Amino acid sequence: MPETSAPRKPSALFVCVHNAGRSQMAAGFLRALSDGAVEVRSAGSMPAERINPVAVEAMLEVGIDIRDERPKVLTDDAVEASDAVITMGCGDACPFYPGKNYQDWELDDPAGQGIEAIRPIRDEIERRVRGLLAELGVQPVA
């Protein structure tokens, strides 16, 4: 009998400079809303030492826990393994990879902001992640 394999999951990589706020929130939303149907990565061109605690707080308000996330270094391997590469307002600090489904989501930086300023950023990220799921052909779970 011919060998069959499961269809490959679509994958997305979220990139911002520090991988401590925007990209981690986007990755958290994509993980939660795809319920494992999408391979999710995030990275930073100059990663911070830890995730922004106010971004963690904002995500906990919507039931998504990113407390155990750690900023990660952007690598060519992560880009090559991803169907979509989404940069998040980092301009020239984030590289462009021709040939990829590349998007740049211009978003305010949550670094140093209070919870009131981060909530609208979080909500905009959720809206955009839902749009990305539609582009990837994945129905959100919530």
What would you say this structure looks like, in words?
With 142 residues, the chain is α/β, with parallel strands linked by helices. It is 35% helix and 14% strand. It has helices at residues 22-34, 53-61, 76-80, 115-136; strands at 11-16, 39-44, 84-87, 101-104. The chain has a 4-stranded parallel β-sheet, covered by helices on one side. Helix 1 (22-34) packs across helix 4. The chain is globular. The protein starts with 10 loop residues before the first strand and ends in a 6-residue tail after the last helix. The model has no long low-confidence stretch (mean pLDDT 90).
Characterize this entry briefly:
With 142 residues, the protein is an alpha/beta fold. Helices cover 35% and strands 14% of the residues. The model has no long low-confidence stretch (mean pLDDT 90).
Write the layout of secondary structure elements.
Layout: E1 11-16, H1 22-34, E2 39-44, H2 53-61, H3 76-80, E3 84-87, E4 101-104, H4 115-136
Parallel strand pairs: 1-2, 1-3, 3-4
Element-by-element helix/strand order: EHEHHEEH
**Which ranges are low-confidence, i.e. pLDDT below 50, for 5 or more consecutive residues?**
none
- Strand pairing plus helix content: what structural class? alpha/beta
Largest sheet at a glance?
A: 4 strands, parallel
Q: What is the total tally of β strands?
A: 4
Distance, first to last CA: 39 Å
Report the total helices.
Answer: 4
Mean pLDDT: 90
Question: Which terms summarize this structure?
Answer:
single chain; 142 residues; alpha/beta; four-stranded parallel sheet; 4 helices
